[in-house]
UniProtKB/TrEMBL annotation:
This is Protein kinase domain-containing protein. It comes from Acacia crassicarpa. GO terms for molecular function: ATP binding; protein kinase activity. Pfam families: Pkinase (PF00069). Residues 64-334 form the Protein kinase domain. InterPro entries: Kinase-like_dom_sf, Prot_kinase_dom, RBK1/2/STUNTED, Ser/Thr_kinase_AS.
Length: 379
């Protein structure tokens, strides 16, 4: 296959193999997760993932059996599997329907990004395989995605404590990508189906196929074509192709509203969740946002903080959106300082005028390049 013989892949896998059992440096548990620490004065560590053989993955997934298929999209399929030592894994196989160039690009992007990160709220990469195709190997998320648990009518409603834990953990993981890594990482596809859950309902950000490195000297990327998921795209990205940390902040705001309300990012009438929630947030009708399936069982003070954070994240102007460290401050501080975030009157008027761009999104929805749907793993 042509893409396996490319020079970029050869360089990638010319590295000396490191043991799968080597320990990865972990964060200091005594330090707040949203505190930015200076990088250590030592040579950068090479990633610790393993290069699997095709035989290992074939055996683990029962020959990539359809019974082991837990997720699929236009460019990849995800299979659950079990290694010989009993360790449960998820194998992402890039499908043959996409072009070789696109497969290689997404493969290198994802492995080059997630292979160098280490945070409890980011899905860890265990390894990869380039025999008979391109494969990425992850830990199996036993609880599946936030979207699968939130919207499955056959499951009991997710309680408020779990929802609160999920949004805080996701914010910490996203803050780490933006400010805790040696190089800034813009995810570009933050959404409920890309937030996977451990057995303890700890959220982990996954699917880095659209991620971008952002050099420190750059303020933003200018990207074409636009890729992402309808209902989550920030105005400046959708209209002008501008990507920076605030692009992810907007998508996180939509995710936050989805967890609070239990509503999908786009409803049956093609109305986006943020356009539905915006008037309620402006009028401070916060209780109206809450998922009725909770039947009033939620912490009112926590709700107020999360709703206020969401209102800041989905602002049309990227300049007036907070950073993820500021989002964490808003969600965790005892008293909210709303005056700190009050926009000038002329800015508020422009903000209201701008909230029609989602109608343009609806018109051109089919042009988006969509990423994987829910990867639902068995319990």
């Amino acid at each position: 296959m042509k893409y396996i013989r490319s020079s970029s892949l050869k360089r990638l896998f010319s590295w000396k193999r490191r043991s799968f059992d080597e320990q990865v440096l972990t964060n200091d548990e005594n330090v707040d997760t949203f505190e930015v620490l200076p990088p250590p004065e030592q040579p950068p560590q090479r990633p610790t993932w393993k290069c699997f053989s095709h035989e290992e993955l074939f055996d683990a997934t029962n020959g990539f059996s359809s019974e082991n298929l837990v997720g699929k999209g236009g460019c990849a399929q995800v299979y659950k599997g079990t290694l010989k030592d009993g360790y449960e894994i998820a194998v992402k196989r890039l499908t043959r329907t996409s072009s070789d160039e696109r497969k290689e690009k997404e493969f290198l992007t994802e492995i080059g990004t997630i292979g160098h990160v280490n945070h409890p709220n980011v899905l860890p990469l265990l390894g990869c395989c380039i025999e008979k195709g391109l494969y990425l190997v992850f830990e199996l998320s036993s609880k599946g995605s936030v979207a699968s648990l939130l919207h499955d009518q056959n499951l009991l409603p997710m309680d408020w404590k779990t929802r609160h834990k999920i949004v805080l953990g996701t914010a910490r993981g996203l803050h780490y990508l933006h400010q805790g890594c040696k190089r800034r990482i813009i995810h570009r596809d933050i959404k409920a189906s890309n937030i996977l859950l451990t057995s303890e309902f700890e959220p982990q950000i996954s699917d880095f196929g659209l991620a971008k490195w952002l050099p420190n000297q750059w303020t933003h990327h200018s990207i074409a074509p636009i890729e992402g998921t309808f209902g989550h795209l920030a105005p400046e990205y959708y209209l002008h192709g501008i990507v920076d940390e605030k692009t992810d902040v907007f998508a996180y705001g939509v995710f936050l509203l989805e967890v609070i309300s239990g509503r999908k990012p786009v409803d049956g009438s093609h109305q986006s969740l943020h356009s539905w929630a915006k008037p309620l947030l402006n009028k401070e009708e916060i209780e109206t946002l809450v998922d009725p399936k909770l039947e009033g069982a939620y912490d009112s003070s926590q709700l107020q903080r999360l709703a206020f954070a969401a209102s800041l994240c989905i602002r049309a102007s990227a300049t007036w959106r907070p950073t993820m460290s500021q989002v964490l401050e808003v969600m965790e501080e005892v008293e909210m300082n709303k005056e700190k975030w009050k926009m000038p009157e002329e800015e508020e008027e422009q903000e209201e005028e701008f909230w029609g761009f989602e109608d343009l999104e609806c018109e051109y929805e089919s042009s988006f390049s969509l990423t994987l749907p829910d990867s639902i793993a068995s319990s």
